[in-house]
Write a structure and sequence with these properties.
Elements (H helix, E strand, L loop, with lengths): L20 H21 L6 H10 L6 H15 L7 H29 L6 H8 L20 H22 L2 H21 L8 H6 L2 H19 L8 H17 L3 H25 L8 H8 L1 H19 L10 H32 L6 H17 L27
């Protein structure tokens, strides 16, 4: 196996490279898997053969959420800045996620009122506050905008990480490796373990419960810390991609249900770490092309809008639960893909991005120091030879003495 273990972020362990565009591109792939899963299970296509083919291709598409949880832990630890306050971290995460959630929550409530669906106040408030994933009752954890259950989990992860990060930074490498290895085993153990849970709550316990789903997040956390220290060992991106493809095909075709989630967690982690390694080293990566990076940037909004749009349209046309006949079904799937992508682009541009600027914490610390240093350098260039300000080096142009700083965003 080709090693990727000597990689360290530029500038040492304390200064990770924030920009990992390959991981942004991979976010779109995960979002597309989830979309394909819902396109199959929500019965857009009435033709049995075509429906069966879509269902077979995207049978494991639900695991795209697993990818998001692992990726979230990896990226947040990789990009964490020394001295960042808990409040600043929470404020940035809130600004990233909550405005989009609020918009979709309001639209989903309006759609429910339009169709005269009951909207219990307790359920609506629980969903609004992103507490629904903690409630095992039917009609609660998948409520309002159903996909927002994963945001409920993510908010729990975000709450915990600032408290855990100091311990992660001090943890011995063997302990971090133990977390990475243990998580697939824990996922595997959930299948016999669910027998301890009442039968009506077993799906919630294995698929939704934030404490259970957090193991995937901590897997990404441990891998990021190992890579940050230059202790990660894993394949390079081409081999990791091949291994993932083989795992996906095998899991979809021949592997029992209680095994595929464990195997895919390992396969997803190998792809994530290999893609990050490629970005840090400047190696070739198909996932950081400009179109894929843009798609990855809007993937969060796409994930939030797609089920609500599909459900609403099919109910309005009277095709909900029966599907569209003939080739209208596949055409509708493609149409939903494009429409949801367009709506996601609007949501990203006019809600997500401006709200992150408005609600996110003001840049302080190193970013402010860098800006002050740049300003000071510009003043020195403007007044060479002033008292107490050295002029340019002999033979140098006025711009030669300007300090150069890395991107501090």
């Amino acid at each position: 196996m080709t090693g990727a273990g000597t990689v360290a972020p530029p500038g040492g362990a304390g200064a990770p490279a924030d920009r990992l565009p390959s991981l942004t591109g991979l976010r779109w792939v995960a979002a597309l898997l989830v979309f394909g899963f819902h396109a199959a299970t929500m019965r857009i296509i009435a033709e049995p053969d075509v429906q069966g083919a879509v269902g077979k291709v995207f049978a494991l598409g639900l695991s795209g959420v697993q990818f998001f949880f692992i990726l979230s832990g990896f990226v947040l630890v990789w990009s964490a800045r020394p001295g960042q306050s808990r409040r600043a971290f929470w404020r940035r995460r809130f600004a990233k996620i909550y405005p989009n959630h609020l918009v979709l929550w309001a639209l989903a409530v309006l759609a429910a009122l339009w169709f005269a669906d009951p909207v219990p106040i307790g359920v609506a408030v629980e969903n609004l506050l992103l507490l629904q994933a903690w409630d095992p009752r039917s009609g609660h954890f998948y409520s309002i905008n159903t996909v927002s259950w994963s945001l409920s989990c993510e908010f729990f992860f975000y709450l915990c990480l600032p408290f855990a990060l100091p311990f992660v930074r001090r943890a011995r490498p063997w302990l971090l490796w133990a977390v990475v290895v243990a998580v697939p085993l824990v996922i595997l153990a959930l299948w016999p373990g669910q027998a301890l849970v009442p039968e009506e709550h077993r799906w919630w316990f294995t698929q939704v419960f934030p404490l259970v789903r957090s193991v995937e997040f901590w897997m990404g956390v441990a891998a990021a810390e190992l890579m940050r220290r230059g202790r990660w060992r894993g394949p390079r991106l081409p081999l990791a991609t091949v291994l993932f493809g083989l795992t996906w095909v095998a899991a979809a075709g021949w592997i029992r249900a209680e095994l595929w989630a464990a195997l895919l967690s390992a396969a997803y982690l190998l792809v994530i770490t290999a893609a990050a390694d490629a970005d840090v080293r400047g190696l070739r990566s198909p996932w950081r092309s400009r179109p894929l990076v843009w798609l990855g940037e809007v993937s969060f909004a796409f994930y939030l809008v797609h089920v609500l749009v599909i459900t609403t349209v099919l109910r309005l046309t009277g095709d909900w639960g029966v599907g569209l006949p003939g080739w209208w079904g596949p055409v509708a799937v493609l149409g939903f893909l494009l429409v949801n992508l367009g709506l996601a682009a609007l949501l990203h541009r006019y809600v997500e991005t401006p709200m992150m600027r408005l609600l996110g914490p003001r840049r302080t610390g190193r970013a402010d120091s860098a800006r002050r240093a740049v300003a000071a350098g510009a003043r020195r260039d403007a007044t060479p030879g002033a008292p107490g300000v050295p002029g340019p080096r002999p033979g140098a142009t006025p711009t030669d003495d300007r300090p150069v700083y890395a991107d501090t965003r």
